[in-house]
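Retry 2 of 3 after timeout on previous attempt. Resubmitting C-alpha cells to design endpoint.
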C-alpha cells in the first residue's frame, strides 16, 4: 500500500491530469527499418509507454530515432516546442558506445530527480538481483518539461511507468512553476 503524506495528497488534489506526453524510442535497428514508413509495430517498449499513458494522459508526440545524441537533443527540443509536458525515452541506456541517452539527457536537465533512478534500481534489484548494477536511467527537468529516460526492455518500461504514473500531475505542476 502506498503511503502518502497529507501535503503530498493536497498537492495531488490540485495537480492536473491534463498532461501532454511524448515518447522517443532510441534504436538504430528500428529507426532504420520503421521510421520512414512510420510503422511502429516492432517497438514493444515505445508502444507499452504510449498505451499506458493513453489510459490517463494525452500522448501528442511519438517517434523512433537512432542512437544519436544530436538527433535526441533535436527531438527533445521539438517536443518541448510543441508543448509536451513529459517526455519518456526508451532505449540507449546500456553500456555500449552507442548507448548515449543517459549522458545526453544529463547534459540537458537543470534539475535532476535523483529519487527516480534510486527507486528504479532498488525495485530492479528486488526483482532480478545484482544485475540491477547495469541499470542506467535518469529523470529531470528541462525547460519546464520533465524527462524520464528508461531502459529499452518492456519490463523496465513497465517498472518505470509504475513508479511515476500516478505522480505525473504532481511532478509536472512543480516543474512548471
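Retry 2 succeeded. Sequence:
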Amino acid at each position: 500500500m502506498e503511503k502518502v503524506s497529507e501535503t503530498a495528497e493536497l498537492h495531488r488534489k490540485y495537480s492536473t491530469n491534463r498532461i501532454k506526453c511524448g515518447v522517443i524510442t532510441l534504436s538504430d535497428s528500428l529507426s532504420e527499418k520503421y521510421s520512414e514508413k512510420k510503422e511502429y509495430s516492432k517497438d514493444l517498449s515505445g508502444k507499452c509507454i504510449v498505451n499506458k499513458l493513453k489510459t490517463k494522459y494525452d500522448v501528442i508526440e511519438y517517434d523512433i530515432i537512432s542512437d544519436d545524441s544530436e538527433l535526441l537533443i533535436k527531438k527533445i527540443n521539438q517536443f518541448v516546442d510543441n508543448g509536451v509536458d513529459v517526455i519518456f525515452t526508451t532505449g540507449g541506456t546500456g553500456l555500449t558506445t552507442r548507448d548515449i541517452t543517459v549522458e545526453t539527457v544529463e547534459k540537458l536537465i537543470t534539475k535532476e530527480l535523483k529519487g527516480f533512478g534510486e527507486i528504479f534500481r532498488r525495485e530492479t534489484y528486488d526483482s532480478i538481483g545484482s544485475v540491477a548494477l547495469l541499470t542506467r536511467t535518469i529523470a529531470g527537468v528541462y525547460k519546464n518539461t520533465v524527462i524520464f529516460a528508461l531502459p529499452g526492455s518492456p519490463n523496465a518500461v513497465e517498472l518505470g511507468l509504475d513508479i511515476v504514473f500516478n505522480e505525473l500531475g504532481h511532478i509536472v505542476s512543480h516543474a512548471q512553476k
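Attempt log closed. DSSP finds eight helices and six strands in the chain.
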